[in-house]
Amino acid sequence: MTGQHADETGVTDAGIGDTTGRDDDPHVRDVGVGPWVGAWPDDERYDPHLLAHGDRRNVVDRYRYWRREAIVAELDTTRHPLHVAIENLQHDFNIGSVVRTANAFNVAAVHVVGRRRWNRRGAMVTDKYMHVHHHPDADELAAWAATQGLTLVGVDNLPGAVPLETAELPERAVLVFGQESTGLSEAAGKVCDAVLSISQFGSTRSINVGAAAAIAMHAWVRQHVFPAG
Known about the structure:
single chain, 27% helix, 16% strand
């Protein structure tokens, strides 16, 4: 099951966080573009409401005034064969940040494992342009990944973990992250084909799971989108 919301009109789907697009909010008014100037484009990808009222959403310029469905369809043509899964056992507030980064790297999908409901605030509405799936537990995630030919790769600083910096990441992979406070659960660790760690050199025991997810996704991009010549 996907976690995508029903589409909304442009102004209420405005830009930063859960902003509402109010005309009296100067922070919202400075985001995006105003109403279309001149003759409207004859292209079904464009949303008449956005053309008439402006587009204040958190999207790159090439998608200004586009319907949400058109943006998703365009992204679907270039998504990477990388998936990201994160455990949601205690309503982790970091899931939204992970989703936002996953959108930036245009991964195939995000998988929420555990509780179905998750805090979307940190996603800054980017989940509306992603495929977000729910799995009740790690075993169900593993069963689904097997049907797709995807390798489960855990990311956590556990004993015996292989350094991310020297590891070869599978192209068709699911990067699996645990809770912010506890890391990968025992159940998630068991279903992973490998567990990688991010090298740290300071005094802290761990780094924020949102930051860890960004580092791991970028490592995958470095290997598979910009391979060394």
